[in-house]
Structures are given as structure tokens and as C-alpha cells.
Amino acid sequence: MHYRISDTEIERFIEEDVPYGDLTTYLLGIGDEQGEILFTSRERTVVCCTEEAGRVFEKCGANVSFSIPSGKVVETGTLILKAVGTAAALHAGWKVSLNLLEYASGIATRAGMIVDRARAVNPDIVVVATRKSFPGTRKVAMKAIMAGGAFPHRLGLSESVLVFRHHTTFLGGPGPFLDKLAAIKRSAPEQRILVEADTPEEALRIAEAGADVVQVDKMPVQELANLVASIRSTCPGVAVSAAGGINADNAASYASTGIDIIVLSSLYFGKPSDISAVINKTS
After folding, report:
1. Angle CA 146–149–152, to nearest 5
2. Does a structural domain hold residue 2?
3. How many CA atoms lie within 13 A of 274 on its CB side?
4. Alpha-carbon distance 247 to 212, whole Å?
5. 9-21: b (≥16 Cβ within 10 Å) or e
6. For 6-27, what is the mean pLDDT?
7. Are 132 and 83 within one domain?
8. Residues 80 and 127 in one domain
């Protein structure tokens, strides 16, 4: 998928790190010297945000001479990105680009690992990431999870319908909500209605009432497998998603239950990818 982060975002990243120019490069008097910067993987990585890192350098006055596209898996020692230009341009873009590459590639790599492990036992399963990314980083985070083969669960509150107990409490509980579920679906015929259940019994009632997706949270694997079998036999058109505590270590176990969707946040949390950045003088 082609995913472009806006120039406004790119310029904000640069402004955050270089608000008044690079004092060190200025005092050393090296700004006009010509050079190159090379970004190389130090480990197996799903690359992400090379396009944005390249645009950082272009906005700083350098030129990109080589770049591997986001979503590619590279081995240790692979050249990911190369830019050429003045020392002033290269130093201005250096850390902004490295941070983008390392953080985004870390998320993409974790996403790719989870997707691979889940689909090894359930080829049709979809892995989706919650909107639990750190505030201000969602656009980069969404690009990263898609580069790794996952997909957004919800981009925000405006484009999807997911009903929690926090919502139904204002209607008097799950019962009154389920009574009006058919009317809600008629009011938003283009929207799939996702509803979270607290127990297997409640999940079955939600499925029977006509929800498009039943979501459960932190349900043990065996209990989840039993629930999936029950919903498949009584409401075969209803999808089942599981959330809560799912990560690379247990994704395959959850996928083996037969669920349709894994919902997780764990891919946001972990170490960035280890990427080397080297600046050389060329003339």
C-alpha cells in the first residue's frame, strides 16, 4: 500500500530538531563541505519510513541517491538509504531521519513477526493494531504497522463503530442495547457494528442479535476456542476478534482458536530497529 505522510508532518519533524539551525556545524565552519550519509541495518529488519527519511533530507537541501521501499525485509548489513549533499544538510537531517527509520522499522518488524506467526497456523487471520500509539505519532505508526503486514483496527472514533460496556451502561446495560441493535444497523447501513463482550454467554447473545463482529478481551485460549466453535455453529456470518495481552509469544496460540481477527497494541512497545548512520566527507 502506498502511504504518504504530508509535507506538514515532515516539516514539523525537522522544526522540532532544528528550530534555529545547527549551531555545531556553523561554529565548525564545515557547512559547505560535500558528503554522504549511509543508513545500514544492524539486524534483520522490516524497513519503514525510508520515503519520509528521504524527504527530510530533501527539505534540508540534500539529495537521495539510494532508498529501499518501506515493507521490504532486509538482512544485517543491508544499505537502506543514502543521501548526498553539504555537511549542513546532512547533519540537519541525520537524527530526524534515523529516529524515523529506527522507530517505524521497529514497529514494522514486530508487526511482521506477529503476522507471520499467526498466519502460520491460521492463514486467513487478520492482525490489526489499536489506536494506542503515542499521541502525535499515529500517522507514522499506521504506516509502520501496514509495512509489517498488519492493519489498523480503528484510526479514530469518527470512522468506525465499536461498542463497549462503557457505552451500554448509558443505555441501561447490554440488554437494552441489543434490543436496539437492529435499528442501529439500519441507521448506519455502510458500517460494520463491532461489539465487545465480557463473557462467552454475552458474546453468543451479541452474535445472535446481529452484530457483525464480536470482540472479547483477555479470554483464555481454550475458552476462546470453545466460543468460536459455538458462534460458527449458530451465527456463521459473525466474525470473532480477540484482544488483550496478545503478542509475538502467544499470537499463534490465539490464531489457532479459529478467530478471524487479532487485536493488539504490543507491536508499538519494544526496542527500535538497530540502524547505523555514517556520514563521510566526499570532497
Report:
1. 45
2. no
3. 6
4. 25
5. ebeebbeeebeee
6. 95
7. no
8. no
Q: What pLDDT, on a 0 to 100 scale, did the predictor assign at position 156?
A: 86
The DSSP bridge partners found for residue 264 are 129
User: CA-to-CA distance for 70 and 73, rounded, in angstroms?
Assistant: 9
Which is nearest to 262 in space by CA: 159, 145, 180?
145
Average pLDDT over residues 252-258: 98
Of 99, 39, 100, 27, residue with least CA distance to 74: 39
- Quick one: how far is CA 62 from the chain centroid? 29
Overall domain count for the chain: 2
Cell of 35: 558528503
Asked if 118 contacts 249 with a C-beta cutoff of 8 angstroms, the reply is no
| pLDDT on residue 248 | 95
DSSP string, 85-153: EEHHHHHHHHHHHHHHHHHHHHHHHHHHHHHHHHHHH-TT-EEEE-S-SPTT-HHHHHHHHHHTT-EES
CA distances to 161, 163, 196, 231, 258 from 174, in Å: 16, 10, 10, 18, 26
Q: Identify the weakest region by mean pLDDT among 2-6, 126-130, 168-172, 218-222.
A: 2-6
Cα-only R_g, the chain? 23
Look at the chain and count its residues: 283
182 lies in which domain range?
Answer: 120-268
Give the pLDDT confidence score for residue 261 in this predicted structure. 98
Predicted model pTM: 0.94
Residue with cell 529516529: 99
pLDDT of 1 reads 52
Is 20 found in the same domain as 91?
Answer: yes
- Strand order, beta sheet including 261-264: 151-152, 126-129, 261-264, 239-243, 213-217, 193-197, 161-163
pLDDT in tens, 16-25: 999 999 999 9
